Amino acid sequence: MEFTHLDDAGHARMVDVTAKQPTVRAATARGAVRCSADVVAALRAGSVPKGDVLAVARIAGIQAAKATPSLLPLAHVIGVHGVTVDLAISDDGVEIEATVRTADRTGVEMEALTAVAVAGLAVVDMVKGTDRAASLEHVRVVAKSGGRSGDWSRPGESA
Known about the structure:
By secondary structure, the protein is an alpha+beta fold. Helices cover 30% and strands 29% of the residues.
């Protein structure tokens, strides 16, 4: 078996994508923060002591998508041309969805996952004083488009 991120000596390397042509690509990821009924009520009332949780989380997610190569050592530095981070309060917490778009040589799945993860961490940070058990859960890619491998959607989930 050949490993794309290891050289002949078994050392980690970044895959060279220089020869690939830029194409339009997108990826969507989802996750959730699970928290107490008291936190959900405070989120709905806009009375979380630290302020506007969803606004902070949205900006954190957008910023995180752009910072992905500095967090993941083998991720490529690419042009992140569009990021949306949507958050919705549910009966058991906050649902998070991020879509990242580019016109570059490699995909944006890691950027979408990073956006969701960091947006979720921002929610946890904003509510942890009220609910120490708040947790970030089920972060996953649900769809991607573009590139050599084409389009893909996670079975059972619409993008």
